[in-house]
Design a protein that fits this description.
There is one protein chain. Among the domains are: about 80 residues, no CATH class; about 110 residues, no CATH class. The protein has a two-stranded antiparallel sheet. The chain has 20 helices and two strands. By secondary structure, the protein is mainly alpha-helical.
Length: about 475
């Protein structure tokens, strides 16, 4: 019965996210109904924890039931006001004609869906019934959540016997995920490991739904289901979907930011393009409050992709929305880190890394990417498609997805080859988890490339038949 607190916990944050998204859409609703709910949960939950964090460090609330409710009601009033002011009656609706599935397609979809549900259900059972034992969960996410629950405030250090944990370690991570776990424990009245971990499943399901909706609006339901199956079948991605790490949370936030930017770049209608880009700006700002690497690894490529899109469109209006989002969310968190001397790296300062060649990194990357069971055959197909069809991948709106993935993927390589972060590759930890964060973008790119290639080949065959 304790798990009934989960829907209660996400209700107000999801509503706030829904209201804000609807306000950002203005006169041009671009999101599908379930897509808006999923995105409302993803962004609304993290934004709620940001407001809670901000009010607490300003000394206005504690992490108590009343404190959490004050933050959530305040955000609800703000987003409700924005909804009342900007969510005008739409002039157009985001609808799409659908073609019915054949009997064979229905049977195949049913079989694959049942198999996927069985795998996810088994993972959920393990997730909510197993005590935390993973290093980052035990020493970071759940530990800090329980710490906030016990101290009722933003605590950076903790007394352990005669020692004190260092504030420059895990406390440097944004507190969104631990605060969500604190909120769940506060509702339940006690710390419950299974309840605290259950939230991770919702990020996994949201990622699958958002990938489906993005692909559906571009290439139809059948191909969208294929793209979702590709993503959900990747072993390591599916494992992380039912594990209490933060990487699935980062993954779905990152996809929201990149996916909405891609849709904005692909849209010809000015009103809809502006709506997509406003949502992308919000997602980019909220993303910063999930994990440290979003600020130093993901934000710069996103900004480069944004300016490339604006340069091609000769439209620089989105700059204001992105600047506002980064100012309201990113600046307070960065200022807090500076004030408390918290590092910006992976629980360690990036400025203190020493440069020297790290052996075995290239071999470890080669094995992890192409020869282990983490990704099956995905990456040989992925890089093969990019090599053969690079013009489509780079010089169409797909360039947003391709450029972002390659900038992040290649941009991290010097850190692995020339610094002590090489252990993240050699020990099969950070490198693989970094790919988990990028997989929704990569899965969409592969699906869209295959669709466009097959569509082009079909057109060429039809032309040859007409010529004959």
């Amino acid at each position: 019965m304790v798990f009934l607190w989960l829907p209660v916990a996400i209700a107000l944050p999801t509503l706030s996210g829904w209201l804000l998204l609807r306000a950002l859409e203005h006169k041009s609703p671009v999101l599908f109904r379930f897509e808006r709910i999923a995105l409302g949960f993803v962004l609304g939950m993290t934004l709620t924890m940001f407001v809670t964090f901000l009010l607490q460090v300003l000394g206005l609330i504690l992490f108590t039931m009343n404190g959490f409710l004050i933050a959530q009601v305040l955000l609800l009033l703000i987003t409700g006001g924005l909804y009342w002011k900007f969510a005008m009656k739409p002039t157009t609706y985001n609808s799409q004609p659908t073609t019915p599935f054949t009997a064979l397609q229905k049977s195949l979809i049913a079989l694959l869906s049942i198999w996927t549900i069985i795998k996810i259900s088994a993972g959920i059972m393990i997730l909510v019934s197993t005590p935390a034992y993973q290093d980052d969960v035990f020493n970071n996410w759940n530990m800090r959540g329980k710490l906030f629950y016990e101290t009722k405030e933003m605590t950076l250090e903790m007394q352990i016997g005669n020692e004190i944990t260092s504030a420059v370690g895990v406390s440097s991570y944004p507190p969104a995920l631990p605060l969500i776990k604190t909120w769940l424990a506060t509702l339940a009245g006690d710390w419950h490991e299974g309840l605290a971990n259950s939230i991770h499943v919702l990020w996994f399901l949201s990622a699958l739904l958002l990938v489906y909706e993005l692909l559906k609006r571009r290439i139809g339901r059948l191909w969208a289901l294929g793209g979702v199956y590709i993503l959900s079948s990747l072993p390591l991605f599916q494992i992380h979907g039912v594990q209490p790490y933060a990487d699935m949370m980062v993954s779905v936030h990152l996809f929201a930011a990149v996916g909405m930017l891609f849709l904005g770049a692909s849209e010809t209608d000015a009103g809809k393009r502006s709506a997509y880009l406003r949502i992308a700006a919000l997602a980019t700002g909220v993303m910063i409050f999930t994990k440290n690497e979003t600020l130093i690894m993901h934000l710069p490529p996103l900004i480069v992709a944004l300016f490339a899109m604006m340069w091609m469109r000769r439209d620089f209006k989105p700059v204001a929305h992105y600047a506002l989002s980064l100012l309201l969310i990113g600046l307070p968190w960065i200022a807090y880190k500076w004030m408390h001397d918290l590092p910006f790296g992976n629980a360690k300062s990036v400025s203190g890394l020493e440069l020297s060649w790290q052996k075995d990194v290239g071999y470890a990357i080669w094995i992890n990417t192409f020869f282990e069971g983490n990704w099956a055959l995905f990456f040989p197909i992925f890089f093969g498609l990019l090599a053969v069809y690079w013009r489509k991948a780079l010089f169409t709106p797909l360039g947003i997805l391709t450029g972002f993935f390659l900038m992040v993927y290649l941009g991290q390589m010097p850190l692995y080859f020339f610094t002590g972060l090489s252990t993240e590759v050699i020990n099969q930890t950070g490198y693989a988890r970094g790919l988990v964060q990028l997989m929704p973008v990569a899965a969409c790119l592969v699906t869209l490339l295959i669709y466009e290639i097959m569509g082009t080949n079909q057109i060429q065959r039809d032309k040859k038949q007409d010529a004959n």
